[in-house]
Structures are given as C-alpha cells and as structure tokens.
Amino acid sequence: MPNYETPEYAIVEKDGEFELRAYKSYLTASIEDLKSENASGFNQIFDYISGNNSRREKIAMTVPVFNELGTGISITAFVLPAKYANEPPPEPGNSRINIKKIDEKLSASIIFSGSVKKEKLDELESKLLKWLEKKNLKTHGNFRLARYNSPFTPSFLRHNELLIDVEMTI
User: Fold this and answer.
1) Residue of 4, 16, 20 whose CA lies nearest to 105
2) Is 47 exposed, middle or buried (0-12, 13-18, 19+ CB in 10 A)?
C-alpha cells in the first residue's frame, strides 16, 4: 500500500492490540447517510477530492476513512491533508458535504485485520470498553471505524481500527 498522509497523533500508551492516542487537530470532509450500508457517502466525498469543488482542485487521498457507528445514521469522513490547516480547503461542489475541524483529543483504539462485520465490531467494542474500564478511563461520543485500505485489498491484509474518544484528565 502506498504511503498516505494520516492525522498526526502521539501514542500515550500501547498495550498489545490497544493504544491510547493524543491526536492533534485536523479537518475532515464528511457526509451523513440514512443507511449504514450505503456507499454513496464515500463516493460523494471521493468526488469532492477528485475535483468537484470550488477550485476544481484535486485533493490528495488520506487514510483512514472514518465511519461513525451507533448514531442511527452513517457518517463517512475523509481526513483532509494537513496543508489545509493553514489554507482553507476548497468549498465542496456538493452541499451535503461538510468540512469540519476536529479538535485535539484523546482516543483509545483497538487494531484488527480482516473484513468488517457487525458481530466482530460488537466484540471489539466490548474488549475496548473493558480495557478502558480497567484503566478507569471514561469515554464519550460514538465509536468510529477507521479503514486504511482500498476495498480491493484482500480482507486478511486490511488494517482497521475501532476508536472511541476518552475524557482528558489533566
């Protein structure tokens, strides 16, 4: 897999398949869909980074692609390249796409490979919550699925993560 830009973070703690990460702020282009199995959100954001924007500018693909889970709707988000922290990104040609600043945050993750199935996600959510409970850390928000590979990558080679934000206690 070629090297793609990712949001910047520092690993605060690593424990096997679990990580606690301090993310720096970043921008996303996101879209909400009513059905979680609907791929149109991905396709519409891909259209935006392919040039359907106010400057007809091609925007570099980044990883991961995030899907927010547990909201009753499907939110798909692409992370925008870091250069847009200093210059505003082009306005989307599609009014359904939202450009959003994600503030610095602390997130817990569990890394896994393979295909993404509901049963597997339920199991991983439980494992991650138990790990956080042992550490006496409180979560907030919804789980996010982070996908790092093309859908054409064989499932056993895929790198995925399940993340949830953690309250910062400083």
Assistant:
1) 20
2) middle
What single DSSP character describes residue 143?
E
Q: Which residues pair with 5 in a beta bridge?
A: 62
Give the CA distances from residue 45 to residues 5, 63, 98, 104, in Å, rounded to whole numbers and listed in that order: 17, 13, 10, 23
Report pLDDT digits (tens) over 89-127. Answer: 999 999 999 999 999 999 999 999 988 888 999 999 999
Q: How far apart are CA 92 and CA 69, in angstroms?
A: 24
10 Å CB burial of residue 113 (0-12, 13-18, 19+) is exposed
Burial class (CB in 10 A: 0-12, 13-18, 19+), 81: middle
Confidence of residue 39 (pLDDT cuts 50, 70, 90): low
pLDDT at 1: 47
Share of the chain above pLDDT 90, in %: 79
Any long-range contacts for 119-122 (C-beta under 8 Å, 24+ apart)? 121/69, 121/145, 121/162
pLDDT exceeds 90 at position 73: no
Checking if the pLDDT of 45 tops 80, the result is yes
All domains in the chain, ordered by first residue: 9-166 (3.20.80.10)
